[in-house]
Amino acid sequence: MRGKQAIGAGVMALALLSGAGWTAQAATSETATGQAAAAKAPAPALHGYQIVRLPNANVLNFQRRTVSCPAGKRVVGGGAQARGKSAILVGSFPTKDGTGWIGLGRQDGYSTVGISVYAICASVEQQPQTDGFPGTITTLPVQHVVDEYVQPMTPGTHPHVVRRYYPGARVTVLCSQQVDMGTWTALWYRLDDGGYVSSNNVSGVDRRQVPICS
Questions:
Q1: How buried is residue 138: exposed, middle or buried, by Cβ count under 10 Å (0-12/13-18/19+)?
Q2: To the nearest 10°, the Cα dihedral for 108, 112, 114, 118?
Q3: d(CA 172, CA 184)
């Protein structure tokens, strides 16, 4: 989005960006400039989607405010707001290392401006160079559905369910991961559309051919 947007009695400039790659845009009242960068590597798998916010605070005009993703995550999008009677958003873009988002602005007639920043974060994992291994979800007693998790289950934890598969659904396995459950070891498959599912709930896949997840 370019330019500034009037909201109520004041002026708010907002940059909102998200996607598999990231794009940065900044706007001023005189000129509008944009920068874009997107990786051309094979499409990565996104896990642990999370929005991190830096609440509004008054800072000096043109002073940068930065919000960082949690350790191990990178930005896949972000944005900033400039708040005040004559506020103008000057810049909204990712940090050089791709682990945070920066926002800055100015306010005509004032030495300070309100700036809030947020980053859309995720764990970006490059998918293995493989076409995958087709499989079929099998029937489970009582549940009749298969829960697919963001990460493999570990003893005493209950991962967030991101998808449910009914028996007979077709899936594509990319790699496998052994998980120590305390009293036994479980094998989980990572799927091409994200998340993990227990290997016991997938038929038609030769476990010996599935590579170990990096």
A1: middle
A2: 110
A3: 25
Q: Which residue has the tokens 């791709």?
A: 98
SS3 of 201, please? helix
Alpha-carbon gap, residue 93 to 15, rounded angstroms:
9
Tell which residue, 46, 93, 53, 92, has the closest CA to residue 70.
53
Q: How far apart are CA 89 and CA 93, in angstroms?
A: 11
What gap in Å lies between CA 181 and CA 140, rounded to an integer?
A: 20
Phi-psi region of 156 (alpha: psi -120 to 50; beta: other; left: phi over 0): left
Q: What is the pTM of this model?
A: 0.45
Please choose, from the candidates 132, 128, 131, 134, the residue with its C-alpha nearest in 3D space to the C-alpha of residue 41: 128
**How confident is the model at residue 144, as a pLDDT?**
60
Q: What length does the chain have?
A: 214
Q: Which amino acid is at 210?
A: V
For the record, the structure tokens of 183 come out as: 């009293």
What is the distance between the alpha carbons of residues 125 and 20, in angstroms, rounded to a whole number? 12
The answer, yes or no, to whether residue 44 has pLDDT greater than 70, is no
Write the DSSP symbol of residue 212: B
Q: What is the structure's pLDDT at 45?
A: 57
Q: Letter for the amino acid at 44?
A: P
